[in-house]
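Recap from last week: sequence in, structure out.
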Amino acid sequence: MKSTGIVRKVDELGRVVLPIELRRNLDINEKDALEIFVDNDRIILKKYEPADIFNGSMEDLIDYKGKKIAKDTIYELAKLAGFKIVE
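Predicted structure tokens:
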């Protein structure tokens, strides 16, 4: 892990401000979602990228009731359910 040398204090509401340089370098824009991970005593922030809820794929996603599902997964589920797929 690489240190940036940047130190920020947590405010009374638990917020931390990410410096503009980091946001620009990591393409984090206003209103972007960040995932929060914990690794022992570390907190890791990562720009959220939606993925298929079944296999983690990030290609050809369809939004279904607020969940992301890849088209390939839909075909596989249809086959499992006994539907004949005509392409």
